[in-house]
Each structure stands twice: as C-alpha cells, then as structure tokens.
Amino acid sequence: MGREMGTISRRALLKGFGGAMAAAAMPVGFVGCGDATDPKRSGGVGTVSIGSNASDPAPKASYEKVFAAFQAETGGEVRVNTADHNTFQQQINAYLQGRPDDAFMWFAGYRMQFFAERGLATDISDVWDHIGPNFSASVKHASTGLDGKQYLVPFDSYPWAIFYRKSVFEEKGYAIPETYDALKDLASRMRDDGLTPFAFADKEGWPAMGTFDILNLRINGYDFHMQLMKGAASWQDPKVAAVFDTWRELLPFHQQGALGRTWQEAAGGLANKTSGMYLLGMYVGQQFPEADREDLDFFAFPEIDSRIGADALDAPINGFMLSRAPRNEDGAKALLEFLASATAQNLYAAADPTTIVTNEQADTSGYSALQQKAVKLVSAATNVAQFMDRDTRPDFASTVMIPALQAFIQHPDDVAGLTKRIEDQKKTIFAS
Hints:
By secondary structure, this protein is α/β, with parallel strands linked by helices. It has helices at about 55-75, 85-95, 110-115, 125-130, 135-140, 165-170, 180-190, 205-220, 220-230, 240-250, 265-270, 330-340, 340-350, 370-380, 390, 395-410, 415-430; strands spanning about 20-25, 45-50, 75-85, 105, 155, 160-165, 195-200, 275-280, 295-300, 310-315, 315-320, 355, 385. The chain has a seven-stranded mixed beta sheet with strand order 1-3-2-4-11-5-12, with helices on both faces. Strands 7-8-6-9 form a four-stranded mixed beta sheet. A two-stranded parallel sheet has the order 10-13.
C-alpha cells in the first residue's frame, strides 16, 4: 500500500460531533445473505441486506431502532446478517471476496482505503453529493479513498480514555492525574487500597492495541505513530522500545490473566468497584446498569513527555460501506443516505449514550454529561488516530500485532526480540 492520504485528523475532525427488521445471528461463520430473497420484493426501496458487527446487545438494539425507522419511512426491508464482532474482523476479507451483503459496517481511514483500493467496495460519491453538508471536511476526508472518491458513510465515534467511577474517586480522595508520574502514584495508592488499578483484558486480541497506541502517541507523537502504522518506520527503532519499556513498567498495575478475559468481563471490575480505572473506548458504559452510568467518568491519558504533550488520542469513526457488487445498489444507497441523516443518528445516540454521532446537524441537546465531555475531548485534540487495527493493514494487525502484543503481555522482558520479529514480518507483509 505504501501511500497515504496524509494527516486525516486534526482539530476539526469531530467538529459538530454530538451536533421491523429481520436479523440472522452468525456466531461461528460469517457469510453473506446470498440470494434467498428477491431484493426488490418490498416497496420501492426493496430488500437491503447488511453485514453487521454489532453483536453486543446495546448497539444491536440501537441499530434495530434505526433500521426500523428506515423501514417505516421507505416501506423497504432491512435484512441484517450479524456476526460476532471479532469473527467479523477476522473474516472480513474472505467475506468481501465471496458473496457479501449489499452493505456492511466498517471503519473510516486506512482500513476503508485498503478494501476500496482492492476493488472490494463500491464508490458512493453520488451519495456524498446529497449528504456532504451534514459532515465536516475532516470527517469527509476520513471517508475518502486513496483515489479521492468516497466509500464510507460515517455514523458514530467514541474516544479512548481512562474511565473511572466518580464515587470511588470521591470516597478514596483520588485526584485526576495530570502527569505520568502522578498516574503511577495513583495506581500505587489504589493497589494499597485493595483495588486493581487498571482493569485489563485481551482475550479478543485488540484491546491491548489501545494501550500501545496511547503510549506511542504520548512518547513519540502522532506523526511517528502513523509512520509506524503504515509501515514506513521501523519497529526496531529505539523509540518503539521506549514504548514497550514504559508499558512493562505499568503492567504490574494491570489486572492479571488478561488473555483469558473479555473486555466486557474486565468492565465488570470497574462496574463493581474492584478495579479503579480502565483504558478503553466509551462503550465501556454499555456494561454499566443504566442507574450507574451517571457515576462513570473519564480523563485523557496524561502527558509523558512535555515536548510531545497530551493532545492526541484514539477516536475511531464507525460507518457503513457498499460491497463491490450489491444486488440492490439503489436500495442500499437509499439506506446509506438515511444512515447519514440527523434523524437516524439522533435515534442511535438516544438509544446508546456511550457514543457520539458524526452528523453536524444532529440534535445533541439530549446528550448525557459523558457524551458532552467526549465531544469536548475529541474536538480539542490536535490529532486523532483511528486505532491500531484501523490505521494499519488488516493482515498486519491480525496476524502480526495481535500475537505480538499478547506475547509481550505474557513475557515482557525480551523487547529487542519482540520488535525484531515484528519488523521482519512487517517487511514481508508490506512488500506484498
């Protein structure tokens, strides 16, 4: 791939953020809906099939409301092919090369560009001719392929930050740390108080990527991080070793047995007040009872190097794409246009208060305090990354970085050997 669009996320990236369905669960395999039904059999829009990674109960229920509204408005039908989130990630390449659904959920940035460049997605620039005024220039940029055409309708986003329960901090007298040393001191105090300082899980392979990302962003800065993600910087650079050395220093404060724990299980520790903090996306709130969500708060990972600062973060954008040859292209484009609307995104944000939407015309007056704070955090960021498994090649993320980071968690002392193995594999993959 060797090429990049340049910096896709600056201060304006998320400016304005916050501004009857058939479902098939596919827990084992992930295949398209096929030709089981005539795509034009209902209404002028017809039947539109969509591949979904929204397997967790909260987002799945929220999307049901959105798709039901589309059906009510158009008379069409949305057939949802839901796969377990991790299965979706792992099998997406084979899925798109087989008989995929008309549309599918995916991500902005490099991972969208990767499939667009390989001819596995349909150009939706004509959809953007209608929806363009709804989004900032930077969000459109993040939805644009390397050929300058648009391939994704952005829907929602969320920041990665350190989440905590306000009541625990108040009860214990903890202060929000503004430096890395203060964070370590807080973690030590939590451990002395009988808490696990950081809830931690990596059974699925991707959560640990967030820890690497934020440490690299704080130690080496956004530009180096993106060079590393696109294969242009060496994993044997001493700058990378500094990231793993810092992480090794923090590991004793993390929940043990991470490779056998899901992120939802780790979130349970934060919810039941046995863990003091959790570095994760805002969707951690999905694991809290509704009555407890007002107790959930977050702070940005603090500064490590004053020359780098603390104004970069991960804030991935989720959205929708069209497969390369949708059976009902017109209906699928109608669905994407609806999903880009303030109506659709208002519905979703109201049903899932652990996210912020991308449409600048959306009504944010009903945002929770957590959502409002998320908008401010992301809007104030100088640089926003999309997350490791979205900022780099999907094959490199899944076949190299997942096992590498899991190996580090288990055996954190051989950083030189680890980074050499990553670099050797990177050279092979990025040369293809």
